[in-house]
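We modelled the chain as a single entity of 595 amino acids. Its sequence is:
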Amino acid sequence: MNKIIISFLTVVFSFSYAQKPVQIAFLSDVHFQDLYGSFSDNNFKGIINPKTGKPTILRTMDSQLHSTRIFNENYFAFLKALDDIVEKGIKIVAMPGDFSDDGQAYNLRGLHTILEQYHRKYGIRFYLTTGNHDPVGPFRKDGGKDDFLGQNGKPLGVYSTESVSKSTDKVITKDIAESGYLEILNELKNFGFYPQKEDLYWSTPFDRNSFKNYTYKKGLQSAAYSKRMYEVAKGFFVPDLSYVVEPVKDVWLIAIDGNTYIPKNINERPENASNYKGASIGYNNVLTNKQHLIQWVKKLAAEAKKNNKTLIAFTHYPMIDFNDGATQEIQNLLGEKKWQLERVPQEEVAKVFADAGLQIHFAGHMHINDTGIRKAGDNILVNVQVPSLAAYLPAYKILTIQSPEKMEVQTEVLNEVPRFDELFALYEKEYEALQSNADKMLWNKDILKTKSYHDFMLFHLKELVRLRMIPDDWPKEFIEKAKDLNGEDLLLLIQNKNQLNEKQIKSETFKKWSFDDLLLDLYKFQSADEIAKKDIPEERLKQYQLLEDLYKENNSNDPLIQQLKSVFKILSLLSHGDPADHFEIDLKRKEIRKL
């Protein structure tokens, strides 16, 4: 009798274990820079932080506030995200590219150390794929930055050779050169780029072996750098670090290397590292110059279906337009070269991969939170944009695979990050030095009063919009006309007092916010999608809705009103996209549902 009970319990336990949901955390665009790293050929360890007494290698606040990402505080955010993942008991972490900031050797070493530490201590397995910042080009290239922070609060240049240096105050180290694929593979091969003994299956697009006959030894042979080359243009062979891995039974993770480095001049030597265009345009170039990936995905999808494997893909680049249907309107208002529109994938991309059988895809690159769905015949493709830890809204995603047809996606926002203000004393020195330069546009020192990582990143967005987005993207004449308007002015442009009285609208309540607030909120929605609503007063959201409706009804030919009409239409589209916070993907019903 006891034997029967034990057998029964064993079956029940095995069944419940088999049914246990698989969880994968996605951390994208970490842009890791090692604040406390060192150079192998130079004694420079950074400048002493008066708060900690530690030498620190950091970039200036001025450079951070002109960039779509921060360079320094994301170091602490990365550690916080990993600690979060440990606490949640998640054992698989996928990183869809830009895990480094230009792939310099000292940053790759620092990243390796941290990943290895979390793997050994907590059993977390990391699976990386490359982004346009790792590598910047297919082969190692000399480089450097002139915006590190120097001892006197002024910028310091760090370069790989004298020949590329610009600053007089500088450090020379080979460790700041931009690594190519070979260097990245050698340093980080244990994190997905090579098979590990615990992986049940591992393969590349160039591997002709059947997964049924897979052995770890065969996997190692096909992982060699020399066996992972393809012809991107006639006579130009470059690496492709794509792979598929089965980290746990019946789940296949496809890490697609979406970087397509195309030669600028076909008469140049193929090994000339400077002769390749950057890869930031993403999948549009995959369609033209990297078609073997499409065939590979098609083959994997067919094999996965035949063998009951759940297929999850991740790449650096989005497969679906991430502007919630506002791309055309943005183009009409700002022009086709603005708002990073060149990074929007063509509709053909989603169709091609949906037809290939791909259903779930996680991406980064844009530093935004978004969900996109496309249906092609009987096929559905869901593209989940993973936010960056180095931009507003700092967050990562957790995928829970309940069954092959039902999955849950949750966005984990990093509001509080220990030590995020550790470098503020150094920025104080930088600000003092900047004040002596009358020609320089000063950043807002109030960012050093922020009390949380969330507020720090929101302030970063505000300064980025002021210092870069508005001057670079928006028509100067339009900004000049609109910049001094407040909410009431925007209302009175299209409604007179009698009309407002009839509608029982009190225009003076719209005075609380300005045109600058409206533009900032537009960028909040672009970055954070529905989660941005937590950072905008509820009353203002209702007023935006009212203004959207009133501008939509207005038929004036006045150019300013036409432009404002367009702004409100973009705002409406960006704030009413598909669920992007916590939602369920139902592949059987071909729909996603807000949770």
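As a brief sanity check on the tokenised model: The first strand starts at residue 22 and ends at 26. Confidence is low (pLDDT under 50) at residues 9-18.
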